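Annotators were shown the component list below and the corresponding predicted structure, then asked to write short factual statements about the assembly.
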Amino acid sequence: MSRLIQVRMGELKISGSPDFLGCTGLGSCFGLILYDAKKKMGGLAHIILPEAGRNGNSPDKLGKYADTAIPKLIEDLCQGGAKPNRLWAKITGGAHMFSFDTDNDIGRIGERNTEKVREILKEKKISFKGIDCGGEIRPYN
Amino acid sequence: MSDLISRLTPFQIDALREVGNIGAGNSATALAQFLKREIKMEVPAARVLSLEEIPEIMGGEERLVGCVLLRMVGEAPGKIVYLVDEQSMYRLLTLALGYEPEDISGEMEQSAIQEIANILSGSFLNSINKMTGFNCVQSLPSFVLDVAGAVLGSIAAHEGQFGDRALFLETSFYEGDNKIFSKFFLVPEPGSLEKILEAIGAESDEQADPGPNG
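Structure shown to annotators:
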């Protein structure tokens, strides 16, 4: 029996075949999937912000920030038997939710999340299998 | 700065709730006049929420909600958030427009919801300004229709840039037999919280009841 494991905001989880990992309602948050196809093992992080430790954020929950979530996800997968060089990534999220968001850094969270995630994955030499990021939400138009 | 939210005393929470109470009372009156209906409101709450709790405040991350976000600008910057679930949006629009809309994503419908949020937040801000002596104004509204998780997750991300927790002054508005369910939030930035508390004379526990300008 396969299970659907929900990954809530700020969480990261790993699992293997035949289970599913999923998160709903990403908005400007970020869904990062890392997968080792040979081991049939993957991890999902529901990232909220690009960096920990800014403006009094405590890095208590590693899944919350791109810069802490990605290394932790890789570490957990490798402990489970995955190989770092076999991992590939799919990323989604980072939407631009509110129309007056563009005028400052605070409003550009979606874009900043996307930039940071791409930068870290490049640093870790993990290739992309799929990217669907940014944009504005218009579900009914 | 964000520490203040964790250090709020029961007295200060009470004082903030009272600010919410007076503001929301004004808003309910204004909405009742606009819709020509009796509007009921719940006793407001002042809640300190961690980022992870924010997406749940509409009772489920996958519920479709309309959200109007306004920025509060001036001495005490923050956000004003008005949330309505899908069914309530139809009912609210029927009252506001005088006919039942076919769908809620049209320009006219979105504009009407924004106008309602405008009325609510305008009267709310007015009463805050009177209480504090501030001259805060609101930005133009921005409307989003999406699942609660996406809308509120993005608001949580905004707040997350100030700290791990945020203070929500919350009120629920009802019309008739609870047919319209909507929530109105004021989310002050941590720095603003300090200023509001000072202006209402609640910067420390020793003061008596909060009054106008302390």
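Statements collected:
1. The first helix of chain A runs from residue 66 to 79.
2. The mean pLDDT of chain A is 87.
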